[in-house]
Write a structure and sequence with these properties.
The protein has 238 residues and is of the alpha/beta class. The chain has a single domain, classed as Glycerol-3-phosphate (1)-acyltransferase (3-Layer(aba) Sandwich). 44% of the residues lie in helices and 15% in strands. Strands 1-7-6-2-5-3-4 form a seven-stranded mixed β-sheet, with helices on both faces. Helix 4 links the parallel strand 3 and strand 4. The longest helix is centred in the N-terminal third of the chain and has 26 residues. The protein is globular, with a radius of gyration of 18 Å.
């Protein structure tokens, strides 16, 4: 019963947050800070409805103006969990098909996020080049899920797109790790679970080339997997 109530109120909240987010997007279309504001709208009501308790430790270096954030992707609830920690002037990269999701898709587009058609290699390259230019000249950071899809606990191999953008733009990579909440969430309980989020030290990319991408991606993946395992063990002890 509690699960059904939660799903009902989550549906209502999704619509309300989507409408408010659309208004923000219409009033200031493609502003790179729209993503953060809209993410907060979803997280503000979504986390209490889901019954999730979140503790975030985000520590972006003050001398870093722009960067590429990479995070592990677990479930659709990431929208609410990560909504609390999206930094200012940070947009994300998503599939072009997201644009057609009612309310959310239009909000996502107006929020200035980058939509990529993965089936069209030329357009995908153009979108990545525009993303690189935004990092270099528009004081805008990028948020990417380098796995490319949701995982089932163990991190999947990282795709090279996020690392190629960071190397081309000469900006650091900041890994953001989320504990494995998707496997343990219990939405039929009042307290459905705890989530830990931690950012790792920025990894510089200046001087790196395309030949360094595989090693860079694997370095980030190993660091993130170790951090996630440590957070999972911490939650298990508590």
């Amino acid at each position: 019963m509690l699960f059904l109530l939660r799903m009902f109120f989550m549906g209502v909240h999704f619509i309300v947050a989507g409408i408010l987010g659309l208004l923000i997007g219409i009033c200031r279309p493609f502003n790179p800070d729209n993503s953060r504001l809209c993410a907060r709208l979803y997280a503000l009501g979504g986390l209490p409805i889901l019954g999730l308790r979140l503790k975030a430790e985000m520590d972006t270096p003050r001398d870093v103006r722009t960067c590429v954030y990479i995070a592990n992707h677990q479930s659709n609830y990431d929208l609410y969990v990560l909504g609390r920690v999206v930094p200012r002037r940070t947009v994300s990269i998503g599939k072009k098909s997201l644009k057609w999701v009612p309310l959310f898709g239009q909000l996502y587009w107006l929020a200035g996020n980058v939509l990529i058609d993965r089936s069209n290699a030329r357009q995908a390259r153009q979108a990545l080049q525009a993303t690189t230019d935004a990092l270099q000249h528009r004081d805008t950071s990028i948020w990417v899920f380098p796995e490319g899809t949701r995982n089932q606990g163990e991190l999947l191999p990282f795709k090279k797109g996020a690392f190629q953008i960071a190397v081309d733009a000469g900006v650091p990579i900041v890994p953001v790790c989320i504990s494995s909440y998707a496997r343990s969430i219990r939405l039929n309980r009042w307290s459905s679970g705890r989530v830990l989020i931690r950012s790792l030290p920025a990894i510089p990319t200046l001087g790196l080339t395309q030949h360094d991408l595989p090693a860079l991606a694997e370095r980030c993946r190993v660091q993130m997997q170790l951090c996630i395992q440590a957070m999972d063990q911490e939650l298990a002890r508590d």
